Amino acid sequence: MTALQKLYEGKAKILYATADPTVLLACYKDDATAFNAQKRGTIAGKGRINCTMAAHLFRKLEAAGVPTHFVNCPGPDEMLVRALTIVPLEVIVRNIAAGSLCKQTGLALGTELNPPLVEFCYKNDDFGDPLVTEGRIYAMKLATPEQVREIETLTRRINDLLREFFQQCGITLVDFKIEFGIDAGGRIVLGDEISPDTCRLWDAQESDPVARVLDKDRFRQDLGNVEGAYQRVLDKVLAN
Ligand code: UDP
Prior knowledge:
The chain is of the alpha+beta class and 240 residues long. It has two domains: 3-82, Phosphorylase Kinase, domain 1, CATH 3.30.200; 85-238, ATP-grasp fold, B domain (D-amino Acid Aminotransferase, Chain A, domain 1), CATH 3.30.470.20. It has helices spanning 46-63, 99-105, 134-139, 145-168, 217-220, 226-238, and strands spanning 6-9, 13-17, 23-28, 31-34, 39-42, 70-75, 78-82, 85-86, 89-96, 112-122, 171-178, 180-182, 188-190, 199-203.
């Protein structure tokens, strides 16, 4: 077999072209970064865990009518995805205050947010992925008003579905980041991944603020047992 052409290497995945120009191969890596790549490390088994978990969630979302880029998984850390033109926005959903929201606003960690917050960041590491207003999105031509409306509607639906699913798993979905792209037909489609790298996930039975953390905050804050937490999330997800 001839080597596939590498199109792009990101912090967590490598994208390759395939024989079908409408399909790409995403290889999930064990590499971990935080704080705009100022902290770097490896989480053993992360590529396999995140790929398997994202595939499971993409299948669930597709079954509920959410369009995603997922095609199938030829290997445990490999995902075939539909090629999309990425909308350069990181869409953040917050059900409970944590992370940068607490730092920037003084809201206490754990404050319930009802309705959930949907926020947009400009996906550009050179600027540190800054929070952007809707006005800035249009001024920068990152997306049209119709696309922003469609993205927000899809995002709230995805949050409802994921929140309920994680609740069944005994996990609280605190917040998460998703990305969208546009397919050949102009349709807005969920892309990237959904994993403990991109979600804050708390063990719903655990009140201890360190023990409950089952996501990348264990790596960011050096809380230990990162691999164990990621594997526990995957086990719970696959059981539901
Ligand atoms: N997030 C992400 N990638 C980013 C920034 C944030 O996946 O580049 C996720 C993060 O894991 C969390 C949510 O988005 O689940 C909200 O992150 P926040 O804005 O609080 O930033 P952080 O505290 O991670 O810097």
